[in-house]
């Protein structure tokens, strides 16, 4: 059990939730968050945005009732955290690009602690957020797009490793661009599937892959882009 | 001295708390979180004769006090289960239940025969991995068969009869609340020589994505579980317990010690916990401790004192 120490709105429907406690996690991993004992029933999987000292931070997009409850938390409120879960990003080799779409930007802020030299591409549909924080943390280029297609800004031949996180249509486009460009770069996608158990027992987060079904929670959420069969 | 033990067809349960099929994998993941040997038993992920990839699309959605799932019986198949999971199951100290589904009677029978054969082979070496088969005639997510067998008593009779003939292992039949007559279904299972029934599986239910103007689930309907179904499950367990003389495993939305007591009072011999595993990851050990504390506090020394009292 942790305690909320801040919850700040950073854009329309987007909140930065901070909790106090000793937490660990690798870049690209997530925690299961819940703020009520019985309701909502299921905890919500949320990427680590940052861990520093005795605080952990998450970016919450108010997408439904569950995330609305997390968005409404006040300092002093209890917050139950289980984790960290998932495979996370493997340490990228060579020149690296991080591509975040919308709330999919969240894991890359934490990843910059380990890979500060990476170039960062942040795409938003209506309104940008956390851009200044990214600019301060990044040693490489930070490219921002609002309302367009962030992928158009990324030269897939300019990198050795590309990691993308965002909505499924964007990740599907990343996979197509990888194939069409013929890039030699290793390309990874981080999926944001619905989950229940988070430990690989319930199979509701199943991902269709070239070699059968995988679990987003334990085999992922990060997969080589070419492995995933997008529907 | 508190005694929480119970037994079904000679299979000992150190307490009545069993983890429900489909919510607990084969026990490995939760076994890494806490000592699952504290539990009365576990029912493994529903098996089919052959590997099954399960349903495409969204597989889970939260609803008021419940959840919908549309996993579609994704599982590695009976042979892979026997080979890959059973060596670990041999060393577990709780009632180990293999949950068996199928699309055709032939698949059910062949699946049961394989499990039975494997049990006989292990027994020769003094080992055991599966204590009991839970026959799933009620999964609502499989288009061909599945629920079809769980709806009509006379159609289900043939499956139960043939599976009963294919195994000497203790056999319980998991019933669907979507059955035309769940009490008649349970009575039929007793007539056909099953050792008990477990109920209820999920309710066939629906959610529509109003912006996409289509069902949220590729398989159209999904299975509703969780606290929302508990009062109906309790009523069904009570009705069935009054109509049969063999043991009943009660389940449906159980998420507290008080819920467990209700199902026992309604007549259940043991209970199963499903969705609550997702609400509290260590639900199993919490409920075991909670039940013991409750019995102590209420001066109940054996569950027999309160089982089926109304």
Furnish the topology, listing elements before pairings.
The complex is a heterodimer of chains A (231) and B (310).
Chain A: E1 2-11, E2 14-20, E3 30-34, E4 44-47, E5 50-52, E6 55-61, H1 65-71, E7 78-85, E8 96-101, H2 106-111, E9 119-124, H3 131-137, E10 142-146, E11 161-165, H4 168-181, E12 186-190, E13 206-209, E14 212-215, E15 222-224
Parallel strand pairs in A: 8-9, 8-11, 9-10, 11-12
Antiparallel strand pairs in A: 1-2, 1-7, 2-6, 3-4, 3-7, 5-6, 12-15, 13-14
Chain B: E1 6-8, E2 11-13, E3 17-19, H1 28-31, E4 41-43, E5 60-63, E6 66-69, H2 78-90, E7 95-100, H3 105-124, E8 132-136, H4 147-151, H5 153-166, E9 171-174, H6 182-191, E10 196-199, E11 203-205, E12 208-209, E13 214-215, E14 222-225, H7 230-243, E15 248-251, H8 257-265, E16 270-273, H9 276-279, H10 283-298
Parallel strand pairs in B: 3-4, 3-16, 4-7, 7-8, 8-9, 9-10, 10-15, 15-16
Antiparallel strand pairs in B: 1-2, 5-6, 6-14, 11-14, 12-13
Helix pairs in contact in B: 3-5, 5-6, 6-7, 8-10
Write up what this structure looks like.
The complex is a heterodimer of chains A (231) and B (310). Chain A is an alpha/beta fold and 231 residues long. Chain A has a domain at 2-85: Elongation Factor Tu (Ef-tu), domain 3 (Beta Barrel). Chain A has helices at residues 65-71, 106-111, 131-137, 168-181, and strands at 2-11, 14-20, 30-34, 44-47, 50-52, 55-61, 78-85, 96-101, 119-124, 142-146, 161-165, 186-190, 206-209, 212-215, 222-224. Chain A is globular and about 50 Å long. Chain A starts with a strand and ends in a 7-residue tail after the last strand. The mean pLDDT of chain A is 95. Chain B is of the alpha/beta class and 310 residues long. Chain B has ten helices and 16 strands. In chain B, strands 3-4-7-8-9-10-15-16 form an eight-stranded parallel beta barrel, surrounded by six helices. In chain B, strands 5-6-14-11 form a four-stranded antiparallel beta sheet, with no helix packed on it. In chain B, helix 5 packs parallel to helix 6, helix 6 (182-191) crosses helix 7 and helix 8 (257-265) packs across helix 10 (283-298). Chain B is globular, with a radius of gyration of 18 Å. The relative contact order of chain B is 0.16. The model of chain B has no long low-confidence stretch (mean pLDDT 95). The interface between A and B is medium-sized, with 28 and 33 residues.
